[in-house]
């Protein structure tokens, strides 16, 4: 006798609330994501030349607000951590942003298009070691080396190109403490003047990449709102032109 069995029920595909969209905020405005801190201060004159003036408390570090209107009725800006700009734009929370090349390389989002190097926020991502560690730069001596960094992907790629496995200690700050407390042999961090390294008994061994900030755009938003976004890109491009004497 053949026993017929009911087929196992097929589980429905999960529906995720809050799926990203790319057209803009629910009020129809475009959103430009700006990084907190020194890059925001450097960006202020560039924004002004592009005809974008955020409300006055945007540059006030003590302000608890994160979204600000501008002198353009169809454009708002949001102020986020520099490491989060790429994610906000890639996921469609903002359609444009000002983002460091280090963040772009670390996350490598395919959803991002970077039409302009804005030439602000100049610094570098470097390998640093404790003073007195004279063989830290001799990569041929090591098959594996422990490195503290907030850039795990950049760091792994850099050392892999030299045939070295980087054992990552993933930190979000105070990287300079890692070697002196025995967490790592080296660090990979963002360096401007190098004064913080020197104050903590470290020195640069190698520069991985030079950094400037870029204008980044969500690729889907560029397709769905091409005129508005192309106009903003053009304004930033014009703002980069030399000022006539």
UniProtKB/TrEMBL annotation:
GO cellular component: cytoplasm
Pathway in which the depicted protein is active: Amino-acid biosynthesis; L-histidine biosynthesis; L-histidine from 5-phospho-alpha-D-ribose 1-diphosphate: step 1/9
Region of interest (Disordered), ranges: 1-22
EC numbers: 2.4.2.17
Sequence ranges assigned to domain ATP phosphoribosyltransferase catalytic in this UniProt record: 81-237
Key words of the record: Amino-acid biosynthesis, ATP-binding, Cytoplasm, Glycosyltransferase, Histidine biosynthesis, Nucleotide-binding, Transferase
One Pfam entry name: HisG
Lineage top rank: taxon: Bacteria
GO MF annotations in UniProt: ATP binding; ATP phosphoribosyltransferase activity
Catalytic reaction(s) noted: 1-(5-phospho-beta-D-ribosyl)-ATP + diphosphate = 5-phospho-alpha-D-ribose 1-diphosphate + ATP
Broadest EC class assigned to this enzyme: transferase
Predominant place of localization: cytoplasm
GO biological process terms held by the UniProt record: L-histidine biosynthetic process
Location in the cell: Cytoplasm
Family assignment from sequence similarity: Belongs to the ATP phosphoribosyltransferase family. Short subfamily.
Domain remarks in the Swiss-Prot or TrEMBL record: Lacks the C-terminal regulatory region which is replaced by HisZ.
The protein's role, per its UniProt record: Catalyzes the condensation of ATP and 5-phosphoribose 1-diphosphate to form N'-(5'-phosphoribosyl)-ATP (PR-ATP). Has a crucial role in the pathway because the rate of histidine biosynthesis seems to be controlled primarily by regulation of HisG enzymatic activity.
Assembly information from the UniProt record: Heteromultimer composed of HisG and HisZ subunits.
Protein name: ATP phosphoribosyltransferase
Gene this chain is encoded by: hisG
């Amino acid at each position: 006798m053949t026993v017929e069995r009911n087929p196992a029920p097929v589980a429905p595909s999960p529906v995720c609330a809050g799926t990203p969209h790319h057209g803009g905020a629910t009020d129809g405005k475009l959103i430009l994501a700006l990084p907190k801190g020194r890059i925001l201060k450097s960006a202020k004159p560039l924004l002004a030349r592009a005809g974008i003036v955020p409300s006055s408390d945007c540059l006030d570090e003590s302000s608890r607000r994160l979204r600000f209107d501008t002198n353009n009725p169809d454009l708002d800006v949001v102020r986020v951590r520099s490491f989060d700009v790429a994610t906000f734009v890639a996921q469609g929370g903002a359609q444009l942003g000002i983002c460091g090349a280090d963040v772009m390389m670390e996350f490598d989002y395919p959803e991002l298009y970077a039409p302009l190097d804005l030439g602000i926020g100049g610094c570098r991502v470097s390998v640093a070691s404790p003073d007195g560690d004279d063989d830290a730069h001799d990569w041929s001596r090591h098959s594996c080396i422990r490195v503290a960094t907030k850039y795990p992907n950049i760091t792994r790629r850099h050392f892999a190109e030299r045939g070295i496995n980087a054992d990552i200690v993933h930190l979000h700050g105070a990287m300079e403490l890692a070697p002196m407390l025995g967490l790592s042999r080296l660090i990979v961090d963002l360096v401007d003047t190098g004064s913080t390294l020197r104050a903590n008994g470290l020195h640069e061994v190698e520069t991985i990449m030079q950094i400037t900030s870029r204008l980044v755009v969500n690729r889907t938003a560029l397709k769905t709102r091409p005129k508005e976004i192309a106009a903003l890109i053009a304004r930033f491009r014009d703002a980069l032109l030399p000022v006539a004497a």
